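Morning run. Coffee first, then this:
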Amino acid sequence: LDQADSANTVLRLTAMSFLASSLMGVFVSALRGLRRFSAATLIATGSTTISVIGAASAAAMGFGMVGAAAAQVFGVACGLVAAVGSCYTLLLAAEGGGAFWRQLRAMLGFSIWNYATRLIQMLVFQVDKILIARWLGPAALTFYSIPFNLAQRVNFLAGPAVTAIYPVAAVGRLDREQFMRQYLAASRLLHVATAALAISVLAWGDRFLGAWVGPEMASQGTFALRVLTVGFWVVSVGSFDGGCIEGWNRARMTFAISAMGATVGLVTAVAVLWLWTMNSAAAAIALGVAAHLVTAGLAQMAIWYRMSRYPASVMLWRAALPIAEMGLLAA
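And here it is:
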């Protein structure tokens, strides 16, 4: 195959992998919604392991990108088959037609909303780069992508934290007081870790960009870096509360929050472009993405405080205290 044929083949295989992984995500989310955490984790981890090992083996054996992409499709397909089989087994275990349909509604009612939430997040984090490359060219994309990736590191604890708190929240509905004690302890740790990194990036991000890439990157990328850092800081803390909301089986609520955040981000970007005479749309897009993140994070925190019926003043004090501590240390 020549380069054009290889590129087309890899593109098709990547599209197949994305479709299969999307379907697998629906069924894995259904398992999580039914409290089958071990099965969901095993399927997701196994699929990723097969894909990574297969792609690495294909590349090492000289099959190139086509072989690596095909191996990735195979790993995702294995995960999809396992996820469908697990859900089908749970459906068969339901006795009677009414129980069958109730079980099916319980699966789809959680998984579809959960998948839609992830889809909105993926679109927000990809469309911004597509628009910048389309409007301003590949060179401008570099001055946006590097600050974006650096700011995203503030969110490094959110994924593991949500994965850890979700099953605890699901079980914690039976003993709310004990769960709230666990939640407050974990939340304080998350606030301290993210505040330390976020304040460091806000204070010294321009120097880091200048030392890492150069003075031009520091000049053009510092604004996007600081704006996005604030956004990822807020959503990092808020997503922890979002995991608790989903753990209490309110996946539709997290979808509504993500949709509202995306809408606010779009309105913000359009308003900035309309009101400001800016030479670059990158700043407007960065503000739009940050507005989406801040809105989603704050909304998750507010709704979780309402759902948990814990005194909001106590929770806000516990959240603000470590941030104030980090601010004093940075000053």
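The longest helix spans residues 96-136. Good start to the day.
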